[in-house]
TrEMBL record:
Record bears the keyword Oxidoreductase: yes
Recorded family membership: Belongs to the bacterial luciferase oxidoreductase family.
PANTHER family on file: BLL0895 PROTEIN, LUCIFERASE-LIKE MONOOXYGENASE
Keyword list, A-Z: Flavoprotein, Monooxygenase, Oxidoreductase
Name of the protein this chain belongs to: LLM class flavin-dependent oxidoreductase
Keyword Cell membrane: no
Source organism per UniProt: Amycolatopsis eburnea
One cellular-component annotation, GO: cytosol
SUPFAM superfamilies: Bacterial luciferase-like
Domain Luciferase-like: 1-314
Amino acid sequence: MEFGINFFPVVDPASKGPAQYYEESLRLVEAAEAAGFAHVQTVEHYCSPYGGYSPDPVLFLTAAAMRTSRIRLITGAVIAAFEHPVKLASRLAVLDNLSRGRLDVGFGRGFLPREFELFGFSMDESRARFQEGIEACRRLWSETDVVWDGKFHSFGPVTLQPRPYSTPHPRVYVASASTPDSCAAAGREGYGVQVVPSVVSVDRLQEMVRRYRDAWAEAGHAEPAPRVQIKYTCYVADDRETAMTVADTWERNYIAMMAREVAALAEVRSADYPGYETFADKVKKYSLGKALADNKVLVGTPAEVTAQLETIARWFGPDISVSLQFNPGAMPEAQSRRSFDLFVRDVMPKFAETA
């Protein structure tokens, strides 16, 4: 089992200013590299306390690249629908060069109605824009004199400058919220997959991972192993009572911020987002106790979190990459750092043989 860290800033300026948040996060990135974590990643969201401190994953990861030398940098994920592919591919190629090939690119479709309205795009086009954006970036990275005549963009012939450092291009991941078909498609294409257990049942997530691995194997890719990345928020403390108190505080904050942003989903009816109209209601019904019982969040002493991860490895396989959020945004730095330090000292060594 491989471990990385991720950042999803659920925070507003009244709780913590952006400059303070970025500096605290970058200090944690440096600590993660020193501790042997495999990757750091962050999200893309806009103009709200729900992720708004990360409107551009490339900028944050560039800063992370300048303060590290080994840890991989992952977009988790860039929203291809919101940018012209030449611009997106070019910015990512710069980061791949600055980091000497440490970049992995996760692409996502986006799911917040307000963000699609902000950029003037229809959610009914999100899947097609997502697929076109990935393929256009892939070709721009790996080919010259690219001519593109797609549904949403036409350009060329164009040869991207700079070329990516990685050959033929950075690793690609696909973010999938709840759809086994999306995971299977990623497997067929030879992409990695990024999933979040908090929004689906264990059975559903197991089906998604199984479909992904089956499709990968059937496609016969040269790379020997598929890449499954699962994201968890992690609260480790010296005693269970403290861990539960901290988790309750910051999970409540997360749900409150998220509920405001996803409320509009109750009105969404889109073939690209089947069933998403029920998502807002599911968020309102969130229970830390239920999430903990289902291992959707990691909470407890080092021994308890170790046991949770052992269960997760049985569910999804020991070869998964687990991406951990220690700082949900507004949490005091000392609190998140204590959780991180306990994880490094008492949990990570238990999984060293499967890393």
